[in-house]
Amino acid sequence: MAPRRHPLFVSGALNAIALAGQTLAVGVPWPPGNDKVLVYDRVTSGENPVVLTDPRLPVGTSEALGFSIALSGDTLAAGAPETSYDDDIGHVLVFHRSNGVWLETPVADIQAPPDPEQPCYTTAADERFGLTVGLATLRLPDAPHEVLLAGRPLLLQPGTCAQNETARFAGNVFVYDHLPSASWPTMPTSTFVSADAAASSCHFGASLGLGGDSIVVAQEAPRQQQVFVAGHATATQRLETGSIMSFDGVTLAATDGSSISIYRREAAQSAAPPFSAASPLPNPPGFSAQWSSLAVSGDVLVAGKRRTDGPTSSSVVGCRPRVRSDPSFEPSS
Fold first, then answer.
1. Where is average pLDDT lowest: 14-18, 47-51, 206-210, 276-280?
2. How far is Cα 107 from Cα 96, in angstroms, rounded to an integer?
3. Candidates 2.120.10, 1.10.10, 1.10.1760, 1.25.10; correct CATH number of 17-331?
């Protein structure tokens, strides 16, 4: 069964990517029934990836595992938003690496929270929880503290129906806090919604980023990133650029598909320094496709693009800074 499309789903392949240190994860959500996550480690695996799948996936079904990926240290979160066996409610799997080896069985299976009452549905059908994910490890004095973000950008606003042309997909983002000594929580500790008026917000949570003391949430209409800082209930800054982005706490990369913009956070006295103005990243020579995913970590930016020689193929283009102290990037092979 072919996956059911929605405007948020880019036609052809959309392979999510995540980068942390020497580890690169690539999602392969299609074809149905063969969805998986490929994990490459520059030191241990080289070009031979570790393959992570959902061992509990019912036979003959699919879930688009790897449509979204987030990676932090020894933890990987993979969204599976197209669960064909339960009307595309979606869920998020959390994998762990122990002593340098990725465990094949997920350590957590986070299900969609109860859906607000909707006139169109009795369940959260077709809302695809886990369409986007974000993950970071916060260093606390006593122990590392992992924070997982799970987006549901297709959440309908009350009073609208998916079949209605005027329906608005407001969306929301759920936050899960995890301490190493405890199991992953089954219910979110908090929820983010768009700071815009209900009449204008659309697809809030279309892309997620988490780093330092900030959460960055992209939305489609109006197309922008909203920056939320710890201790603030509303967005402290808005960046008007593409809805596909990656954030590592210092650098934010965003794209509308045709070009990539780089935002930097410079050291400042305030706890939440604003992002600098966008710096455009030149496309590689002969670039003719569209960027479909981004991952930034320190001095490295990886960008995925859809190729034109097939609907299910993709490639990854790496970028590096000209010099370590220069915040700009240049294409590299």
1. 14-18
2. 7
3. 2.120.10
- Judging by beta carbons within 10 Å of its beta carbon (0-12, 13-18, 19+), is residue 230 exposed, middle or buried? exposed
pLDDT of residue 167: 52
Instruction: Give the alpha-carbon dihedral of 287, 290, 293, 295, to 10 degrees.
Output: 30
266-281: b (≥16 Cβ within 10 Å) or e = eeeeeebbebeebeeb
CA 208/CA 219 separation, integer angstroms:
9
Query: For 300-317, what is each residue's pLDDT tens digit?
Result: 888 887 655 444 333 444
Show Cβ contacts of residue 59 under 8 Å, excluding neighbours closer than 6 positions: none
The model's pTM is: 0.81
Which residues contact residue 67 at a Cβ distance below 8 angstroms, ignoring those fewer than 6 apart?
Answer: 14, 16, 27, 29, 79, 80, 81, 82, 130, 131
